[in-house]
């Protein structure tokens, strides 16, 4: 009976195949056409690495890619730090005054349209007479991604047994030492997952970055968007393939780290 229930029916196989094709067939086509030797995107001209060479010789694209990596790394690190502290405050400070208002303001970027967030940040930077560039984009991305980190870390902290910290304090640790030596290693997989999520969201953002960027600080998505408006070039396919490969490597590393943590008896956060 169990084998009969777990057996895939033709309908299930068809539905699974259609779902996978819907999700990944466009990506597969993009990767294949990134090796197209023809200058025309829709005309196959044989296999070639020509457009990868064009990308690595395109100084403007390389600068935009480097800018995206820098913004993503810095904003994800700051968002992870602030989001972790906010999660600790929400979970461990259940009764502090203003908790409802604080949590509502913290989670607002989750549901607020990015156009409104980007416009409000632009008005803030204009009011402060701040020169738009690397740091304005970084601050904007930190504002966007901090709430996602908070959600991930908060879910892990909420399921953590607090008696472990209490036992550490009974053995002589103060609250800070108990958190650093006991709680922090247990929530480290969730923190890593939050950092990766924040980094990915930063790399993907176009709307908020378009409001807060300035001359000479365009990120890779903005650069790609400006190029696509003039027509899709095969070089764009090569750039997107490289980004897909990097994200795939990060996902594999995160999955292996999560499985390793689970094998050691830790409850890793789901990615």
Automatic annotation (TrEMBL):
Pfam families (alphabetical): BPD_transp_1
Subcellular location(s) per record: Cell membrane
GO biological process: transmembrane transport
Main location as per UniProt: membrane
Membrane topology per record: Multi-pass membrane protein
Alphabetic keyword roster: Cell membrane, Membrane, Transmembrane, Transmembrane helix, Transport
A cellular-component GO term for this protein: plasma membrane
TM region(s), chain numbering: 12-35, 71-93, 105-128, 134-157, 178-198, 236-257
Every ABC transmembrane type-1 domain range: 65-257
Protein family per UniProt: Belongs to the binding-protein-dependent transport system permease family. CysTW subfamily.
UniProt-recorded name of the protein: Putrescine ABC transporter permease PotI
Species of the source: Bradyrhizobium icense
Lineage summary: Bacteria, Pseudomonadati, Pseudomonadota, Alphaproteobacteria, Hyphomicrobiales
């Amino acid at each position: 009976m169990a084998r009969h229930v777990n057996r895939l029916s033709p309908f299930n196989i068809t539905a699974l195949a259609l779902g996978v094709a819907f999700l990944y067939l466009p990506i597969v086509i993009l990767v294949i056409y990134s090796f197209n030797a023809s200058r025309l995107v829709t005309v196959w001209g044989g296999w070639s690495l020509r457009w990868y060479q064009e990308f690595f010789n395109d100084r403007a694209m390389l600068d935009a890619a480097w800018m995206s990596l820098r913004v993503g790394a810095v904003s994800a690190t700051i968002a992870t730090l602030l989001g972790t502290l906010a999660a600790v405050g929400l979970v461990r400070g259940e009764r502090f005054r203003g908790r409802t208002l604080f949590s509502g303001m913290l989670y607002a970027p989750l549901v607020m349209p990015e156009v409104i967030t980007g416009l409000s940040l632009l008005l803030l930077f204009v009011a402060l007479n701040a020169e738009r560039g690397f740091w304005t984009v970084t601050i904007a991305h930190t504002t966007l991604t901090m709430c996602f980190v908070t959600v991930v870390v908060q879910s892990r902290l909420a399921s953590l047994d607090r008696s472990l910290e209490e036992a550490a304090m009974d053995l002589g640790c103060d609250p800070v030492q108990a958190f650093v030596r006991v709680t922090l290693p247990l929530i480290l997989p969730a923190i890593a997952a939050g950092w990766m999520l924040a980094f990915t969201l930063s790399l993907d953002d176009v709307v908020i970055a378009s409001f807060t960027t300035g001359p000479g600080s365009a990120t890779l998505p903005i650069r790609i968007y400006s190029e696509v408006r003039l027509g899709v070039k095969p070089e764009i396919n090569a750039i997107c393939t490289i980004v897909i490969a990097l994200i795939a490597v990060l996902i594999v590393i995160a999955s292996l780290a999560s499985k390793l943590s689970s094998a050691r008896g830790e409850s890793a956060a789901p990615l």
